[in-house]
Amino acid sequence: MKSIALAPEEQEITIKVLKNYFHGYAFRDLYLNLSSIENSYGGEPIDIFKRIDEIDSATYGSTYEFYGEISRLVNSLHCSHTFFAIPCMYAFDYYLPIYFYIEQGQDGNNHAYLYPQHNFEALLPEPLVGAEVLYVNLDGSSTFTDTSPTAEQAIKIWADNEDQTSRNPYARWQYAHQHSFYYRSPGSYPQPNSEYIKIRVKIDEAVQDLDIPILVYANRDVTDLNDFCAVNDVYKEQPEPEPDPEPDPQKNYYRKSNTKKLTRSKTPQNTTTSPVNKKELAKQLKDLMKKNEKETLIKQKDRIDPLWRDRQKKLIEATKGIQQKSGSFGNRTVDLDYGLNPIQKRRIETPKKMSHNSKFNRSSAQPDKFKEKRTKKRTNEEEILIQPFAATSDRSVVGFHMPQYELGIIAITTFTPNDSDEFLETFFDIVNQLSDNKGSYFSKKLLIDMRHNGGGYASLPPAIT
């Protein structure tokens, strides 16, 4: 892909379309002078059009480098409404074959430990599994100092510079640590600055430096670049039209001499048409718009969180004992595989295995010396009771109760529910049950759980706050 040279026409058209889009971008002026107020999340000011001009004036070795700079600009906005898809790259994925398990130590500080990803165990020798990670250089530099970033800081640096997900730096870090730092598509993220990262680990008070390669995986066979990355027909060179043949005077003479005056009888036609059912037409149009919107949102959710379907299925299974409310929203079934195409289905297999095996790797692949060092045995453990008591049919909202802590939990897994009315009605029903001091689920404390929530309809968050 890096061998494809950037044509001047392609660069010119892309920059023109990009500027046209950002002229209508509602938030462009906010980025010129980002507020330093704490609840605004801060961030570096961005002059979007100045950056586009800088991208346009630079020299590139390939189209991928050019589109990567555009992607880096758009991602730096951290705007959930806007992302840039690099052409022809969605069949590929970047993999980091290790991950950092971060936990709080007995000293009160966070410590990171090294583990292999699923299917990449052979790349990490057993003595290094579970080793403490001291520093991480994302650019592959072999120079480490006391100010070099820790694993936790390196993920933050990468997320702030490269990830589009959220303006909230804490949400960005969580998403990067759970997913995008280790596994991401070149269609949404630019090429890494280095083909490997450099990390320093500590084993038995001795330090060792490791090169961790950034791998590329193809989700389909790429045999013909022209078929795989076809140019839009609008921009293809059209063949020159063949010139009209010279007229033959002799043929033209006979054509005129044999011309007869033709007459055609006109019969009155029935101009009566069946009446248009405007209500039915409006309903069909509304249904079509909802279908297109749903498919677009599903593609967006697949891009942000490839495992959302698997997570929702597990949540439905775990809360299947909940009695659905009687009425218009009761006993619904939800097709969570809707919109799942074969390529996306194949793409999610690896992160699913990575997620499934992460706890297994930490417990089974970890050498005994690390287990003994960090495992704290708990005595007289109490059984924690978590009661699910209300949920939407698609589990976009679920209510839980922890009686021993007098704690109510409202899990909001997405703001793109199958039915917004059901979402709101269920949310308010959960709130009423948790606040009813005579009810079974009365709680003095409330926790809103929005882990893995990829956003959605802008009208829903204000409605519940």
UniProtKB/TrEMBL annotation:
<feature type="compositionally biased region" description="Polar residues">
    <location>
        <begin position="265"/>
        <end position="276"/>
    </location>
</feature>
<feature type="compositionally biased region" description="Polar residues">
    <location>
        <begin position="357"/>
        <end position="366"/>
    </location>
</feature>
<feature type="region of interest" description="Disordered">
    <location>
        <begin position="353"/>
        <end position="378"/>
    </location>
</feature>
<protein>
    <recommendedName>
        <fullName>Tail specific protease domain-containing protein</fullName>
    </recommendedName>
</protein>
<dbReference type="InterPro" id="IPR052766">
    <property type="entry name" value="S41A_metabolite_peptidase"/>
</dbReference>
<feature type="region of interest" description="Disordered">
    <location>
        <begin position="236"/>
        <end position="280"/>
    </location>
</feature>
<dbReference type="InterPro" id="IPR029045">
    <property type="entry name" value="ClpP/crotonase-like_dom_sf"/>
</dbReference>
<feature type="compositionally biased region" description="Basic residues">
    <location>
        <begin position="253"/>
        <end position="264"/>
    </location>
</feature>
